[in-house]
Fold:
Amino acid sequence: MDRRLLIPVLLLSSVRAVAQDTPKSVESRYQTRYSVGVIDDATFYGNQKAPLPTVLNQVLIEPSFGIRDRGRWNVNSSLIGLTATYSDTSTQLRVREAYGGISARDFDFTAGRKMVLWGAGYAFSAAGVLDPPRMPTNPADRLNVNEGRDMVKADWVHGSQAISAAWSTAALAPASANLRDTAALRYNVLVRGFDTSLIAGHDRGGDSFGALTFTRVVGQAWEVHGEAVWREQAAVLLGAKYTFSGVTCIGEFYTPPNIPYYRDASVSPLAGRQHDGFFDMGKARLRERPGWKEWGISGSVVANFDDRSYTGVIDVSRWFGNHFSSYMHLELPRGSKTSEYGSSPYSTAASVGVRFQL
Amino acid sequence: MCNANRFLRWYLIVFFSGLLLACALVSRAAVPATPDAEALLKQSDRFRNGWPSYRVRVKITDYEAGRSDEEHLYEVSQKGKDKTYVEFMSPREKGEHLLMLGDDMWVYLPDTSRPVRITPLERLTGDASNGDVARTNYAADYSPVYLRTEKVGAEECYVLDLTAKRKGATYQRILYWIRGEDARPVKAEFYLTSGKHIKSASFDEYGVIGGRMLLRRLTLFDEIRHNSHSVLEYSGATPRELPDKLFYQGRADRF
Structure:
């Protein structure tokens, strides 16, 4: 099939899904969910260090559909049709999620490509062994382009505790993802407000690993979270969130060992253990200011303390009614040319975009 | 003679004892008894939670300066007094979920890398806060004290002073007016720990759903920005067998 035809086909299939999603009684046997997102995103690069185009334009169509039969079985899909125009124009179809599941009493079985979120970190994670990769400069995945892992998974859920066993294959993942087949086991429990997980597993042809994660709310305004992971050496993450007057601040400190599994391409193998920090302050809606209720703003800094490089990020968004929003995302990397963030091929990247959500 | 005296003495003892008892009973009946605030609060909760396990749709319309400017639709599943699962259905929030287990709350955002724990202060965002949708069992969250009887319009109401007794409560204090006749909620004022009066509520409309008289319409007034209010409309309330798995905090795929 011509790849250029994929986007209209995707759109048509999602519209068909919309047509099928007639208003339903809560008593109906089948429940369906759908959504369609369309994003036009333009990124302008400043002070490029290589002779490359300064504008990247991306159009994304993101239909999602799910159907469930009263908790007995479910089928879900979430696709991404992406057309990118940079030095040339390319179109691709990505499968964010496509999986089916069946439930029997306390057991759930799932097969297919699926997003799994086991890590407790917001900008960094060492424990999220099956999670999509974290990007500290874009932890919220603003274009929703992260893809799940291909896996079979069994969950036993009883009250507030669960045991999950998953086996994920790397055979269908793009080579650039640098993934291995992974088998992992997780025990998750909520005890005295601690949402705690123990994770153990093995990467085929690679390392075995073990991890402990937790999140806990303390008092009225604080949330703390952390991860301790052993994979050849220890990796530790500690983070906290603080809320005041509708403003949310998130801070994280992360120290991974300098081994191939964790190492960023820009970091030298001789550099030793890395120490990273993240701080974000944002307000989702400026509702206290008359006329600014639809605006959201946040600013963050992610830094590598070892090479003293950092990236500043500013996000501004505005909703127009119930379906349209626009946004601006600005990245300002700084540091020496050989540092983690200073080695970026640009000194500014400003993205502006519009989003339609159905 | 001796017997007659003894008889008279016993007669007088019994007579005055009976008189004292009658006076005590009459005086007790003359002063109205203080209502049982705990029982009233439990009774009033039944107008918002019809069954031990149920599902209901909530439509929230926000008004700014008298004009409607936003609509949100939620599907709320509630089991027992401390398990609530809210699915966000309107386009701008689609894919988001909220889970409340006792004092703990999580929000699942499709575009973040993990389930996000919500602090008590974050429950207060919006004219209709997360807590207004997810925590409707006041008897489980607050200790009530009877204050007085007061007329609201034509209704004779009991006024209860509710103080948060657990961390998961949305507000520190609520002044709660409930109808004397049947304990139906009539209006409320919500206060922060600082004593600041942040919201008021008027319980506008009730209707018979599934054989039970349940709340159908509630208006929340922002007492800080006086020109804004939210209307919560409840529909499709149905008793449902909800599996415990629905309320498991680690489940990221909420559908």
Remarks:
- Chain A has one helix and 18 strands.
- Chain A touches chain B through 70 residues (CB under 8 Å).
